[in-house]
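Input sequence (1123 aa), recorded before submission:
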Amino acid sequence: MSSDSTNGTSLLMGNGTTTPIPDGFCDASIELEFGKRRWYMFILISLVIWVGGLICIVLGRCLHAWIFNRRRAKEKLYGNKSPSHVYVENGSNWYVLMTNMAGDLESGRNLAGKILIALSFLANMAAFGIYVRQTTTHPVEYCFDYKKNTGDEIIVDIFVAELVLYIFFLLHFILRLISATDKFSFWAWDIYTHIDLLTLPLVFHTDIGKTSWLGLRFLRIIYAQKAPLMLHYLNVLTAGPNLTMGYVVGKVFALILASAGIIHLLENTGDPWVDGDSNRQKLTYFECVYFMIVTLSTVGYGDFSCNTYLGRVFCMLIIIFGLGLFASYIPMIFDFISSHTKYDRKFKTTPGKKHVVVTGHITDETVSAFVQDFLHPDRAFNNTSVVFLAPNHPTVVIQSILQRYFSKVSYFVGTIYKHHDCERVQMQEADAVIILCDKKCTNPDAEDAGNITRVILVKKFYRHVRCIVQLMRKASKAHIYNCPQWKESNGDAIVCIDELKLGIMAQSCNAPGFSTLLANLFVMRENENKHYQDNWRETYLSGVSVEMYSTLLSDYFIGMSFPKAVEICFTKLNLLLIAVEVHHKDKGEIFAINPSSSLRLTKGSRAFFISQDADDVSKARFYCDRCHTNHTSSKRMLPKCKCMSGSSSNVSLEGSFENLKKDHSTTNGKNHVTVSLDNPGYNNKVTMNGKTLNKFNSSSMKKKTLPPLDYKNSKREMFDETGTFFWCPEKLLEDAIMSLEVAEQEMFDGHVVILVISDVRAPSLGLQQLIQPLRASNQPYEDLKKIIILGDDKFLAREWSTINTFPDVHIVTGSPYSRVDLRAVNVHTADMCILLSPFKNVVFEQEEHEAMSDKEVIMVALNLRAMTFDNISKSTLTSPVPYDELPSYKSNFNVQNSFDMLYSENALMAIGTCNLDTNGDTITGENIRMITELVYDSNTLYLDDERQSQCSSEGIWMTQSYACGSVFTVSVLDFLASATYFNQDTLTLVLNLVTGSVNPELDKILAEGKKPDGVLENESIAATRNRCRVDQLSLDDPHFAAMGRINEYGDLFVKSIQEHNMLCLGLYRLHTNSSKTMSLNTRYVITFPSRDMRLEPTDRVFVLMQFKEDKGDFYTSSEDSQM
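Predicted structure, token format:
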């Protein structure tokens, strides 16, 4: 405390006495007296500079306008040749150049600009640091004389450093002024201009006026909110959320520190209108920061408070403004914190361990299905991690899956469209990228467009990474092929949902229950060994747990024919060999499904098996008949083969095949190729995935001449130019549309009815993919069934252009809801009724229940089941049916069989009116052969019997409707994404089974928007037709009847492959309590039954049968058989 004396000012000592201060004494640690303070001079100087600058800018604008107007007047008077014009133009160019250079520096567009921004930020932070340091050693206003240097040398050094910083600020201010396009706005409203005007005079006036005022130097901290911008220029902050959060933190940080500086100034200075220092209080800067944090957080401990009126007014204003500011920042801070979880980090690869990135449509259902199949326990050698990339955080269901498979499954939030997110999941090192689609989407074209763009992005930046994509439409494949980086030879693959879905439903017309059989063959599930009260469920469950496996065959199989290999694998190893991939030194890889006996297995052949256990499949890789005869029934691994060790494979072959007459290496000094690729069956080989394929199968590999063509049949049988399907000249829509009256008069029988619920506004269903397998050329022409499409004619008119070259396809205008229309097309006498789920051309809305998505299909299906039809006469049912008079299945019926006691019932099965239960004078719709497409698995319970509802909790797999194949959902196709990753031939196998053939030539023609031309049968077409097909035969079929009485499935399997090269896949069995009915709904599928399973007289058998039977010798080479 100072007091007046004769000399002017006295200094208050520690013992309470005062000592006079001599004149001219100047100490930076002593605060000036109340009457000698000059703080208002600093503010006045800043105000004068600001007002003066505004006036200068306004005058400059007026002068510029006056000069511009004079120039325009001279231009009008003298033209553009005025000398002043050239002078002004040159001056203008110089000014523009200078402005552009200053703008480049200020905006950080070049390296010098980035350095300038970084230096400016660091200089401002250093200036604020000097201010904080001075608050601890200096009062708010004090005397300072640099020349006399009466203070500490450190104070002088700090002053010099501060002076250098503010000179830099002055130069930077001038640069910003030059770069500003609107000088008036820059000077009047820019906050950083105000900071410079309020702080620059403080330092320069200190050196001139010998008085220093800390004043508003703390305003330099406001530059802290530019920290994110500086870090962004330096590429430290690149992500949007991080940059946004940086701005929020910078503004909050600057607000608190600047407000603390104002409180420190006001409280340590006191109110200016109060004489003396009565209401001021000494507060350190740290105490002011603490006070502001407590105040803005609304805690208010009360240990510090403002004494001055100005301090209190400022607190009221800052609380109102600060609370509003914090309220707007809280959601941003919360979003930032919630987004920075473990799902936003970077995936860390493990040396020696591969990973796949799964993206696209990521939901609880898709994640669960993919993980269960990809990480199935039977994939014992799977050392691949799964990395999901999705835009949303995982749900509770997904989190539980991640916790269960924490060592192999990771989840990251992001999108494939952001390169930064792709780098986070290490996509450049991924073994594959799998893109899933929404199979329940309402707009399939838009869904495909999204996945196509994802493929393009992946192949654009990571062209070496394998890509597997799911698409809804087959037509969308053409857009994928337009991507130059897409190469099927590198493993890139397309899984087309509609092509597979409709193909499976089409094959169900030839083999009812095929959809269930295929799903049980390829979908990996666990056999939980549950026990059910119904015996049929126990039998059915044994086939649910079988899966598809592939492995290399041992050298024991070299030179063996495929049928013989099938027999050995079935009888010795309990394996169902369905396809093989053999290597030829000239032709490359040949993939064949159930080929003929002339195909010989080579070294390193890869086999595709159906089995209950992966351990059984591994035995085929080491099997030797001589060494392992007594070990095949054991669950343990086979011991090492001794006879093959250290010797060539020919040694084991000579001991294994008694009928093998010649060495497979050389014959009479010339090479002997066991597989002849010159026969007409291979003239039309196609290439897929870099491998040579034989278009599903060629049943003859021998060099032989095809039998003469039946020109009588050829005149009426025409095929597309690739020979894939039956063809007819294009028909007009008017010629194909049939009225209800005409349809009723036709009395359709043994036909296929397709019920289309879609209206004219709905997206296309792609009926071409449904009808083409029904017109596949690998079946006799006389076995083709009429196809009747019942639906809206306007909608079907859009589909007609894609199906008008298929023979015997008719459109009946009507409604699937109408019983009159259903009776007109004789739906009760149809071999199969296909009920398609419509696409809805609306934006997805949250339904009340999943059933609402299938409400139309459920209504039509229940309506069909509730219908009754007039019964055929009892005399027709009970009297023997002559073989020649059977309408549909006469070629598959034999009156001379071992089941004569059931002749009348089996005759009813063969009649085209077909498989319907009789009840008095009526036939119920419960027995209509029908396959219904559902969107959601859970909706199966609406179509299932009430007595089976207790199994609904176990999913669709154990319901009666699914077991008999009367319902189909796209969820059964979830396995293909992971199965294709492990072996791409699995996709080729499934496509061949469900579509009848894989023909890239035909796909190329359709992708061009063209239609294949029609041709008559020739040698090339005949070779293409010569491929096996899916069928379903009764036990009294001529193929089986000639074998004699067979009681067990194993005997039936072996004799079928030996005598007809026909591969049995499973049984279609009636329930025990329904032995008197022939209904489809009372049957169930038994996939790959055990060898000792007893056959029932009413069983039907799923088979892969040859187009033409091959009677070749199973034990001799192709050359030997020609001798």
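Checked by second reader. The chain has a mean pLDDT of 77.
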